[in-house]
Design a protein that fits this description.
- The complex is a heterodimer of chains A (about 110) and B (about 120).
- By secondary structure, chain A is mainly β.
- Chain A has a single domain, classed as Immunoglobulin-like.
- Chain A is built from no helices and 11 strands.
- In chain A, the strands form 2 sheets. In chain A, strands 2, 4, 5, 9, 10 and 11 form a 6-stranded mixed beta sheet that branches.
- The termini of chain A are far apart.
- Classes of the chains: A mainly beta (about 110), B mainly beta (about 120).
- At the A-B interface, strand 4, strand 5, strand 9 and strand 10 of A face strand 4, strand 5, strand 9 and strand 10 of B.
């Protein structure tokens, strides 16, 4: 079965630095990967999506990459702020399936 | 900004009782989903619903679970006879297409506690 792994449970960085979060997948490539933000006790909030045939997408301070050779997506938050502190979830959508397969998330803490 | 609305926000129920979790998806969305998240664990897919029928379900979604879209706006998840292990946050989500443009919009969830 397909697995999505987010290797870091937690990441602590200083305000103003770039946070880089990793998402790895096993076996075959998803059609696209989505990144969500989740605050405690709340539902996931969609941030960015990248397709299998795209290398990089950007939105404001966010950037996501997709490397099918490494079977990995990287999610970057530049000029991080304490308000960026949250859990970030990677989710894969495979061709022919409706379901999203989520990783376990990385908890980001941005220190002022 | 359009929202997915879920009610109730918290539900406590006795083991063996039936519960119905309710959701109002975004009005122009066509695809509807239920996910759950046990405390401290991953978000897990339960079921997707399109054109008034289930389009995919996971192994978790057994005969104890059912979904319905009783009218043009509500989408419900019923658990027929709750077990302790059904305790989790249940999230409803909707999408215009299969989420390939704008992702999925999730509700804030219903925290279900089975005692």
């Amino acid at each position: 079965s397909q697995k999505i792994e987010q290797n870091s449970e937690a990441l602590n960085i200083q305000e103003g630095k770039t946070a880089t979060l990793t998402c790895n997948y096993t076996n075959y490539s998803p059609a696209y990967l989505q990144w969500y933000r989740q605050d405690p006790g709340r539902g996931p909030v969609f941030l960015l999506l990248i397709r299998e045939n795209e290398k990089e997408k950007r939105k404001e301070r966010l950037k996501v990459t997709f490397d099918t050779t490494l079977k990995q997506s990287l999610f970057h938050i530049t000029a991080s702020q304490p308000a960026d502190s949250a859990t970030y979830l990677c989710a894969a959508k495979y061709t022919g399936r409706r379901a999203l397969t989520f990783g376990s998330g990385t908890r980001l803490q941005v220190q002022p | 900004e359009p929202e997915v609305t879920q009610t109730p926000s918290h539900q406590v129920t006795q083991m063996g009782q039936e519960v119905i979790l309710r959701c109002v998806p975004i009005s122009n969305h066509l695809y509807f989903y239920w996910y759950r998240q046990i405390l401290g664990q991953k978000v897990e897919f339960l079921v997707s619903f399109y054109n008034n029928e289930i389009s995919e379900k996971s192994e978790i979604f057994d005969d104890q679970f059912s979904v319905e879209r009783p009218d043009g706006s509500n989408f419900t998840l019923k658990i027929r006879s709750t077990k302790l292990e059904d305790s989790a946050m249940y999230f409803c989500a909707s999408s215009e297409l299969l989420g390939q443009l704008y992702g999925y919009t999730f509700g804030s969830g219903t925290r279900l506690t089975v005692v």
